[in-house]
Amino acid sequence: MRFGLFLLILLVNIAHSANFHVEPKYITTGNDFNQLCADDCPVLNYGLISTNDLWVQHIINTNVLSVFGSVGGENSPQDLLYKEFAKIGQPTDKQLTDFLKQSELNIIQTHQELINNNPNQHSPLIDISARPNYLGHQGDLELFSISEFYQVGDMVGTGSINYFVFDMIESRQLTLDDILLPNTKEKLENMVKEKFFNALKKGKVDIKKHEKKWSFFLTKNFIFTKDGIKFLYQPEQITPYNMGMPEFVIGYADLKNIVKPEYLK
Fold first, then answer.
1. Which of 171, 202, 245, 248 is the most buried (most CB within 10 A)?
2. What is the pLDDT of residues 136-168, one digit of tens each?
3. Rg of the chain over all Cα atoms, to the nearest angstrom
């Protein structure tokens, strides 16, 4: 029997200075998967967080649950349900529970339809997960990632990791543009591109042939590490699926005059 689980890989009770605390948030929907789908249940793994900064909690939890929004396709009941939920500024526990309860019912129904339309395929035909990970802090920044896996029907399952950087002084999520000095993005892109091409050369990949099919771009998916800023690409963004998720770190010394000095402390 396969059923929905509430999973969270997270370091708990870790503080930003003396003020920021994060821990798992547990929600029980009351749905009985044994009765609803028995041995033909979808696999749903997701984790939620609770923090004393509700705006951080809302951003992370809303992004965790976005993985469920696309089940059923554009304008499906689940898609519309998620879009309405995402409009809520800071959902109460009841609103969150109601959303999760109906989401599970919608996805179970979609899963049953897939089984009926694909009788020769093995269940589960829906296998999705989203797990938040607290990565610690750097200065006044709190760092998170969300790891996702998504497989519906006969499509090949795909994974992704998205980073989140929160400025706790300004109370906002930072984008790449927020941390860059004016007119420096092209220089940064060239630095990351050089590392990418060096990796291709090391792997004995013909760069000219590669560029005919895969276009390089500067990803907005970044995180601060102890060595520098890491840029992570999802599968099939700039390389074939079998090359995984390329990542490149630009050291802090090389980011002077590119990144705003307050983020290089």
1. 248
2. 999 999 999 999 999 998 888 899 999 999 999
3. 21
Q: Give the start-end residues of each E strand in 153-246.
A: 158-167, 172-173, 222-224, 228-232
Residues 185, 163 share a domain = no
| 48-51 vs 126-138, strand pairing mode | unpaired
Domain assignment of residue 18, given as a range: 5-173
pTM: 0.90
Q: Give the model confidence (pLDDT) of 24-52 as tens digits.
A: 999 999 999 999 998 899 999 999 999 99
Query: Do 32 and 99 reside in the same domain of the chain?
Result: yes
Measured CA distances, 53 to 50, 116, 137, 172 (Å): 8, 45, 14, 11
Measure the CA–CA gap between 218 and 224, rounded to whole angstroms: 16
* Span 123-143, average pLDDT: 93
User: Pairing relation of β-strands 141-152 and 48-51?
Assistant: unpaired
Q: How far is CA 20 from the centre of its chain?
A: 21
